[in-house]
Q: What sequence folds into this?
């Protein structure tokens, strides 16, 4: 599995630099017409890892559906199973219609990117709704919700701008496919991330996937960040339990005071 992870990280980066970027000495793309070569290269550099993150989520989801994940993560992904299945069937149906058209199929149709659109919209609306969630009586700070929403909207806007370039039929097939697949991966990353955040807040508990912990342990280049995040989640859970216990004590004290 670790070799698949490396491939998911390196192939999109190399593909993007060669087909889209102008990164010397590899870049031969013509996408620079959309902006400066520096900004295009920067976009490719930061967008490519989304392929790997999307793969992590999909692998974690598959392990949960197969019953090889923790009960907590299995419950989380179980809530998304129907929604993901419906979206997947819709995407396959749309792709089939494009392929069955009498005219020659062209990648400028952006039907691939269309598969990610529902996930992007769900992520943005879900993030906005996070401002209403509470953990131990405390809501998520509005500035954090606003920041996450702005980040998603900016990436959504950049993705839309890139898709307009594809629709203009100026992009090569290689450029078009890279842009569309990256758009889908970004949509999946934000979708899973937002759903996971809401699930943690609803359950007032945080847990990192043991499947991904084991996967990261197999990667020699992994700096142990995921393991550190796991320890951080344990600290967060402990603080939440303390806050909830304090709330219960205060509620009992108020109840006794009223009876007097």
A:
């Amino acid at each position: 599995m670790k070799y698949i992870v490396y491939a998911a990280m390196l192939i999109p980066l190399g593909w993007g630099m060669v087909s889209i970027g102008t990164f010397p000495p590899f870049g031969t793309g013509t996408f620079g017409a959309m902006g400066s070569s520096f900004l295009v290269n920067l976009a490719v550099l930061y967008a490519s890892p989304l392929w790997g993150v999307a793969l992590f989520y999909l692998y974690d989801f598959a392990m949960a559906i197969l019953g090889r994940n923790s009960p907590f993560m299995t419950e989380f992904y179980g809530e998304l199973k129907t929604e993901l299945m419906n979206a997947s069937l819709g995407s396959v149906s749309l792709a089939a219609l494009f392929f069955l058209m009498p005219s020659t199929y062209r990648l400028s149709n952006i039907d691939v990117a269309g598969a990610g659109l529902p996930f992007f919209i769900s992520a943005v609306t879900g993030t906005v709704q996070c401002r209403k969630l509470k953990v131990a009586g405390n809501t998520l700070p509005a500035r954090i919700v606003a920041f996450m929403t702005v980040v998603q909207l900016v990436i959504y806007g950049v993705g839309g701008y890139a898709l307009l370039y594809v629709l203009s039929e100026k992009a090569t097939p290689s450029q078009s496919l890279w842009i569309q697949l990256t758009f889908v991966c970004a949509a999946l990353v934000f979708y899973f991330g937002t759903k996971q955040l809401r699930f943690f807040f609803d359950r007032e508990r945080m847990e990192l996937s043991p499947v991904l912990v084991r996967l990261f342990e197999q990667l020699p280049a992994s700096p142990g960040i995921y393991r550190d995040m796991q320890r951080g989640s344990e600290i967060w859970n402990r603080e939440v339990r303390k806050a909830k216990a304090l709330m219960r004590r205060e509620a009992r004290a108020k109840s006794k005071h009223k009876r007097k």
Remarks:
- The radius of gyration is 22 Å.
